[in-house]
Amino acid sequence: MSFIELSFPEKFNATERFVDWNVEQGRGNKTAIYHKDDEITYQEVLNNVNRTGNALKSLGIEMENRILLVAFDCPEFVYTFFGAMKIGAVPIPTNTMLMPEDYCYLLNDSRAKAVVVSKELLPNILQVKDKLMFLKNIIVVGGQVEGTIDFYELINGFSTECVAAPTTPDDPAFWLYSSGTTGFPKGTVHLHHDMSYSSELYAKGILGINENDRTYSVARLFFAYGLGNGLYFGFYAGGSIILHPGRPQPDHVLSVCTRYKPTLFFGVPTSYNAMLQVEGAKEKYDLSSIRLCASAGEALPGSVWKQWREMWGLEILDGIGSTEISHIYISNRAGKSRPDCSGKLVPGYEAKIVDGDGNLVPTGEAGILMIKGESTAACYWNKHEKTKNAFQGEWFNTGDRYYQDEEGYFIYAGRGDDMIKAGGIWVSPVEVEATLMQHPAVLECGVIGSADDDGLIKPKAFVVFKEGVTVNDELINEVKLFVKKTIAPYKFPRWIEQVDELPKTATGKIQRFILRQMDEQRRKL
Ligand code: 3UK
């Protein structure tokens, strides 16, 4: 069966399905969220979600108004996400690692009327405050700051009852911004029915999630991957979720697993690899509660898959998903997973692999992967041309190159464009290049993704330096640091290779595919 249809009432509000439903099912006293020393029940979550919804309404937030969420993984994230949706408003979880200018763009592009921001991240917003055209309220989580609204001061005192806005299954529910090669990130508009589909098809269908599960995701809630793993899958099934703020350092992640005992663990290849490097991990930490591990965001190197199995006796299910499809649509299965392979189609989704003209390619040949499924976003906000390119009728163009073997397994064959996925996060080579160009020593440059010794992709720059510049380690480090400080730090080039010239087209465009070939040849030597 390729099509799985869920039925929705004419009026459907995702918060009622993911939050209220758990209390209706008798889980009011069950722990929904483990966060630091707190255990928060479903009844408490519902009360705070309702309070938040009512409080946002009191600020003048109406149906369809957007609210930007720049917060670490914490209960207030959950209250804002579901509270906003309950009143028909549209929360937009955003990357917490961006620069002030990035938030300026996101706030103006989305026209969010309010931002809910973790106190530590507030300076990023305040720095660009004068340029914000639509923002009216700054709500701060984690401490009082003059001139802003304290989250708990705002919501306390509001009723714990809140009638859901009369949304339909097809109303906008939340947005997530996704980066492309050129231009600004695109607001991906998800509808109220989308989370039910990805929960049903992937979380239930592939992981068999149920109310006894406890989820823990290394990928943060602001990623589409983390949002499902770390939040709404658990609530969909009436299970429990473990939230942990702070940077996901490998020893920290292992100690969270040991302490809170997740049954479903979600990582990205970079985090699995980093955990494998922790000395004496087997003696210090206990992962015996975990029944399944998943990986997504970038291809999982077979070597990491093997080492993890040897060390912990656990299989990692690699799967590919995207912000636009909400979550994973091709995945390995428990007991049948294969290294260096994304697995098979998740039942409920359809896939086709096509050539440049949109014709199907023969089995075994690589082409562009197109996906069809009910969790797919409606469009990119305010970006009609990009929407037309990516959302083609019912099909979504993933931009990934894949081939399928005789048994139906899908094997990743690289991106169809120049985008880099590093540590599971998008990096646009164009943005890194533009930043490098601002450094006084740089004449020209080209940026690609290059594999490190563990097979994980990171940005690498080929640079032509200006005449008269002395190129030594000091300068190289200075240039790297310059990028790290100018744009989000994870985007900086881990390697800089000096070249005399760059390969270009007749019209002067840098040919990154030739740089990739040069890089690969050099690695083989
Ligand atoms: C790449 C992979 C090879 C691929 C995501 C799970 O990563 C997620 O969403 P994004 O929008 O990026 C999507 C792109 O990332 N990719 C993701 N997983 C794999 N490449 N193997 C993989 N296993 O280029 C894809 O188009 O950031 C992942 C669930 C939800 C997600 N949003």
In brief, what are we looking at here?
With 525 residues, the protein is an alpha/beta fold.
CATH topology of the largest domain: Rossmann fold
Hetero compounds: 5'-O-[(S)-[(2-aminobenzoyl)oxy](hydroxy)phosphoryl]adenosine
Question: Judging from the principal axes of the Cα atoms, what is the shape?
Answer: globular
Describe the strand arrangement of the main beta sheet, using strand numbers. 2-1-11-10-12-13-14-15-16
> How is the main sheet built?
9 strands, mixed
Continuous helix count: 16
Determine the CATH superfamily of the largest domain.
ANL, N-terminal domain
Mean pLDDT: 96
The end-to-end distance, rounded to whole angstroms, is 48 Å
CATH C-level class of the largest domain: Alpha Beta
Report the uncertain regions: none
The count of β-strands is 27
Query: How many structurally independent domains?
Result: 3
Helix proportion? 25-40%
CATH second-level architecture of the largest domain: 3-Layer(aba) Sandwich
**Computed CA radius of gyration, to the nearest angstrom:** 23 Å
Tell me the strand percentage band. 15-25%
